[in-house]
Amino acid sequence: MERVEGSGGREGAEHGRPILDSAASRMAARCVDRFARDDTVVASKTNAPLVALGEIREHMAHSPIKRNDDHHQGDRPIMTTTIDTTTPTSTEPGYAGQTFLASDEISIRRIEKADARFSMSGRASTFPISPAVTEEWITSDLSKGRESWYAIVRKADDRVVGSCVFHPHRVNTEVKVTIDPLFGEAAARWKAETIRLVLPWRVDETQAMSVSVTLDGDEVEAIAAAIDLGAREAARTPGLIRSPRTGEWVDQVCLVYLNRTWQDRLPVPTLGNLVRSGTGEPRPVPAKGTWEGAPSRGAILVGQRVYLKAVDTDDASEMARLGRIDPGAYPGGFRAVNNAENMAHRRLEDITQRLRRDIGFAVRLRGDDRLIGEVAVLGVDYVNQTGETASWMFDPDFRGSGYGSEAKHLLLEYCFDILGLRAVQSRVSTENARSAAALRKQGYREAGVIPWVELDHGFLSGDIIFHLSAEEWRALPRAKAPERETA
Amino acid sequence: MTEQVLNASASPPESHGQTFLVGEEIYLRRIEKRDARFVMSVRNTPYPQSPAVAEEWIAQGLRDKSFGVWTVVRRQDDRPVGSMTLHHRNVAPLVDVHIDPLYPSAGRWMAEVYRLVVPWLRDEIHVISLQLPVAADQTEAIAALEELGCVRSACFREMLRADGRWVDLLRYVALHLHWLERLGHPADRPIARSGSGVRRPIPPHGTVGSDPQPPNGAMAIGQRVYLKAFDKEDAERLSQFNRIESETGFGHSRLLTTDGNKVQSRLEAPSFRLRDYVPFVIRRRSDDRTIGDCGLENIDFVHQSAESYSWLYDPATRGEGLGYEAKQLLLGFAFDTLGLHSIQSYVMEQNLRSAAALRTQGYREAGRLFWKQTGDGQFLNQLVFDLLADEWRAPVLPPSLPTPDTRESVS
């Protein structure tokens, strides 16, 4: 699988040590080799499901390099699937002879089809998943996604007790470690052990620039293990996560482990060395609007000057047009050429309207119904009741005049009062001081800075993490509504 | 289109001469594809929806025979402002009314919808038992229902979220007058109860600790049982139990299932996306034997509510507290893992044992849904229960001490 998608295979070859290989990844490589010759459908000798090579090629050609967290809910990540059309041939413990990624009690190896037996320990789902469905998932989706999935196994009996997934971005690799909480105290110990194994391996041995790992605030052993290694606490968002151990709300802690050689050469952005603009003080929340007569069609939330509505084809077309005539890129960003089709496509909603995770609104002016921007809450996590807010003011004429903040507060009302979220987060590039200042004005607080996230304009930028809880938002000062005009 | 343009529509059609379901300010007609333009007024959804997708939803709905949708239209300008959905259910169909909350007149129009549809369905279509859920903050609608002779039959506490606060969901019912004359009002018959009705303490969780082989697939472990995902083996086992069921007192007939349809009905999605249905198998720890199933249905993550169910298939395991232990594990999953705020449960009124079990598990009576189905030569009622997360977490007090919540239950 690593060879199929690039990074892992190259890393293994260049550094002289093979990556932990599995029957699944070997089979994938074989499929790809054969695919180079024809588009036929092949089956393994073991009567395993058929694999359409055309689909593999299609996927490889268009595989996006992006966060693929569509499936995440709660704090439990999913395993990326692996094609495994063979049956395991060895019955000896998986750690036998393994010289790295192994400690006293656990070892780490690639996910195998046989691991479906332990799907609730290895797959790390909030919901019950049967082995049959897990096996189907393992055998049908190997080449999807950019993540690399590893099983954490107990050495004593080769039993899967958890999983570790590497999610590579352009610069940073996110690591998610999950141990089945049913193992009680041992789970905490094994998680700390996993951290001790994978962070140095990924950064010091495979030479990744930066690895980040997100932990719950009550995972003290794992946090201590990361700090002992030399990782730093980059961001801490208070009370964001419901602890699976206690059911209590705990902090979300993001730790980063940076490559030491690069650290000597490059500055590490922190909250202390950010370039800031504005006063940093929150401004009053604009008054809500009311609508005498008929609301504009599709309106959902109404302010004094703007309203939010569902994105339709007219909005998508206008967003694309405004994007193409934007006079300049925002700091830390770039302009993009879109058309109505792809603008509409990424906003497509589900007809069932069930549990949407990415929810976007067009922002239009009340006066002349002009489209000026878009706001959204993305990756809604209904278990932890959180989401990530985002906003774009497409029309430059309406930047810096408070329209964006008015739209944002309507979005926050939607998040907190309608969806019932407890808190939202927002990410802004360390180079984008204006957007960061806007978030502070809107009441968001800084949780920290994740360094070295993107390659921007010849240097490495980070992400400032902001957060705002429903309680904090409700406590913000409120502007009074102006005298109502006669309808 | 601007609001000015919308307001300026000339010569409103005034309900096109329709002779019924026409009120002073609004009227009702069947939903049409063109209503997709006003989907955010017509459809009761927490999410934004574009007209293009709404058209597809309307077309699908028109083909679905399990429910019908009527558009609520403002007479003044023939503009859709809401909807009435009729869910066809045996003798007790259910009516949902929605008016776009952006209209300051929404409360008044909702009341008007009830004044139109309740007499139409009860007195003209002769619905026997019309079920009418309404949020407790809809005061004008509630007043209209009571004027119409509808009876409040249940109150699900804090089941809805509105403007950032919790609101009760009330259930009103409109019973057919002829049937009432013949049978008397079902509310006059007291609820039969068995058992002490006293809540029992929550048993401690089990752990696998140093057990080298914890149960495979376990998600929650108690002292004697554990909950796990369904697999084919469990489905086969439960289907066998269905075929040898000896009791009929659950308020419905015995059922024959195959392992195939059991698997289908419990099949989980292969993705990790949130679901509105989460089934578990109950297994006994001592012999790893499948003894029943339990789960959550109709999970609503926005309002943080769900309906719980549980079933011990093996008659030999009933009455030993195993179902109780499994239910507490399920409630832990619902409240602590999923973070739900309230759980509801429904039991046929004659199923005294299951109702008693719910009381000992901490559920409170929320009321009765009258004449929900036919059976044994009569219309049968359903007892409804609810349980809030805070109540479940609160320590169980000895029976001699007063309970901290003095809220009255509705029956």
Put simply, the count of helices of chain B is 11
CATH level 1 name of the largest domain in chain A: Alpha Beta
Distance between the termini of chain B: 49 Å
| Pattern of helices and strands of chain B | HEHHEEEHEHEEHEEHHEEEHEHEEH
- CATH first level of the largest domain in chain B: Alpha Beta
Largest sheet of chain B: 8 strands, mixed
* CATH-defined topology of the largest domain in chain A: Aminopeptidase
Q: State the domain count of chain A.
A: 2
Overall pLDDT of chain B: 84
Please bin the fraction of helical residues of chain A.
25-40%
The CA-CA distance between the termini of chain A, in Å, is 64 Å
In one word, what is the shape of chain B?
A: globular
Number of helices of chain A: 14
Q: Spans of chain B of 5+ residues with little confidence (pLDDT < 50)?
A: 1-12, 401-411
The CATH architecture assignment of the largest domain in chain B turns out to be 3-Layer(aba) Sandwich
Q: How many β-strands of chain A, per DSSP?
A: 17
Backbone CA Rg of chain B: 24 Å
What can you see in these coordinates?
The complex is a heterodimer of chains A (487) and B (411). Chain A contains 14 helices and 17 strands. Chain A is of the alpha+beta class. Chain A folds into two domains: 65-265, Gcn5-related N-acetyltransferase (GNAT) (Aminopeptidase), CATH 3.40.630; 299-475, Aminopeptidase, CATH 3.40.630. In chain A, the strands form three sheets. In chain A, strands 10-11-12-13-14-15-17-16 form an eight-stranded mixed β-sheet, with helices on both faces. In chain A, strand 8 (232-242) and strand 9 (249-258) form a beta hairpin. Chain A is globular. The longest helix of chain B is centred in the first third of the chain and has 19 residues, at 106-124. In chain B, the strands form three sheets. Chain B has an eight-stranded mixed β-sheet, sandwiched between helices. In chain B, strands 1-2-3-4 form a four-stranded antiparallel β-sheet, covered by helices on one side. Chain B has a three-stranded antiparallel β-sheet with strand order 5-7-6. Chain B folds into two domains: 3-183, 3-Layer(aba) Sandwich (Aminopeptidase), CATH 3.40.630.30; 218-393, Aminopeptidase, CATH 3.40.630. With 411 residues, chain B is α+β, with helices and mostly antiparallel strands. In chain B, a hairpin with a 2-residue loop joins strand 14 (364-375) and strand 15 (378-388). Mean pLDDT of chain B is 84; it is low at 1-12 and 401-411.
